[in-house]
Amino acid sequence: MAAASGVRHLLAQNEHPYPPLPSVLTALAGAVGDLNRYPDFRPERFAGIIADWQGVPAAQVVVGHGSAGVALDLFHSVVRPGDNVVHSDPCFDAYPLFCEIAGAEARSVPLGADARHDLAAMAGRVDERTRIIVLCNPHNPTGTVYSWAELTDFFRRVPATALILLDEAYVDFAGGWAAPAVPDRIAEWPNLVVLRTLSKSHGLAALRIGYAVAEESVARRVRGVQVPYAVNRLQEAGLLAAVAAQDEVDRRIAEIAAERDRLRAELLALGRSVPPSLTNFLWVTAPSPEEQLPVKAELERLGVAVRFYPGQGIRIAVGEKDANDAVLEGFTRAHRAAAAPPNQPR
């Protein structure tokens, strides 16, 4: 089916391919009866649920409207016009936008040849007006990671006047990636802010549940700029049900990871450059229009929507098996067309 007739497989936004768990849907249905009542003025109970779940002090937790909402609150709390923010290029689309909103200079640093942050180059862009350094680990859109040792080596080069925003939106998919417990990280690195979400691993993107863990004074400063009533009863009900169903969540994560690895192996067999991913998506390196356009045409014919980064690559969210098979069919068609002799049927 052509894209003009409707997308059959939406793989452009890194969403969880499965609907919410039955227990989450039941909890949400039970919460709608109170929608005539305001939620808490400040989400202290909500933050307490996160704190208990993650084993961190509640005073170090900031919750908000998705991880993007918490990140924007952080920008509002520490960035002033004329300051700068260092981030990778490409990165999560929201960060350049947040720089614009905050009136900050966005210092974008191209990724290295391994599709990871160029940490040395990023360190070189930091100065006395740098307020935030954004590191997505695993990285969006490439899915690549740094070890904790590599990250802390970089942390040592960051002045205390700059906050390190470690965006871990996809960390639940990063099986085998090892790091100290979050409270220990914060204790050692008080300018570190760890950002997470339930949008990806728990499949609650529409509920917008995000949180950050930071040193207490940093967390208090962020909470001070947040809008009252920012977290609602549906979010709280969904959060409680989701964290209570962690075993089911983990099983789904394992299924997605298995499909991710299958999809990568097949794309590699087609001769594509696909760095190892510890997320729920893959990055296909495709820096030229000649590499992107045939794939785009074939995927559109099949009704598959993925994310194209002109001059850089293609990001593909891992979906259910039939969606992933459609991706492979599109890439296979493009591969065969490229290999066909001139003037021969393709």
Give the topology.
Blueprint (H helix, E strand, L loop, with lengths): L8 E2 L11 H10 L12 H11 L6 E5 H13 L5 E6 L4 H9 L2 E6 L8 H6 L5 E7 L11 H8 L7 E5 L14 H7 L3 E6 L11 E6 L1 H8 L9 H12 L1 H24 L11 E5 L3 H13 L2 E2 L1 E3 L3 E5 L3 H19 L7
Parallel strand pairs: 1-10, 3-4, 3-5, 5-6, 6-7
Antiparallel strand pairs: 2-8, 7-8, 9-12, 11-12
Detailed description of the structure:
With 346 residues, this protein is of the alpha/beta class. It folds into 2 domains: 3-18 and 247-339, Alpha-Beta Complex (Aspartate Aminotransferase, domain 1), CATH 3.90.1150; 22-244, Aspartate Aminotransferase, domain 2. 40% of the residues lie in helices and 17% in strands.
Largest sheet: 7 strands, mixed
Helix-strand sequence? EHHEHEHEHEHEHEEHHHEHEEEH
- Supply the CATH superfamily name of the largest domain: Type I PLP-dependent aspartate aminotransferase-like (Major domain)
**Strand percent estimate:** 15-25%
Structural class: alpha/beta
Computed over alpha carbons, the radius of gyration is 21 Å
Describe the global form.
globular
Label this structure with key terms.
globular, 346 residues, 12 helices, 2 domains, Aspartate Aminotransferase, domain 1, alpha/beta, 17% strand, seven-stranded mixed β-sheet, Aspartate Aminotransferase, domain 2
